[in-house]
Amino acid sequence: MTVDERSRLLLAEALKRALGDEEGITLMELLPPVGWADVATKHDLAALEQRMDARFAAIDARFAAIDARFAAIDARFVGVDDRLGGLEGRVVGLDARLARLELRFDDLAREIRGQTWRLMTLMVAVVGIVVAAVRL
Asked: Residue 30 has what pLDDT?
């Protein structure tokens, strides 16, 4: 036998007549809104809990796998950091060598300027001697 809304309404009216309005309404509110087959039992809740536990276990396993991946990525980043640290040391050494080379180029430029001035002075002196010799 299925309980439909019409049957529930007839029962509610009979309860109101038999027990009184307030008591009949209270008793109807204590009944489930649908048939007893739709009410969850302790067994249904236990089965649901088992299914949920299985799902959460699967989710936990996925998170564990993701954590393992992140750990591997972290290890790779540590390796990259170490390599970059070594590279940074090499760049600092290269920078120091370039600074020394720049100083040597500055010294070389000063020497070339000094030689140029000495050469120009010598040439002026030679031209002066040649001009004086020609006039004699």
From this structure: 82
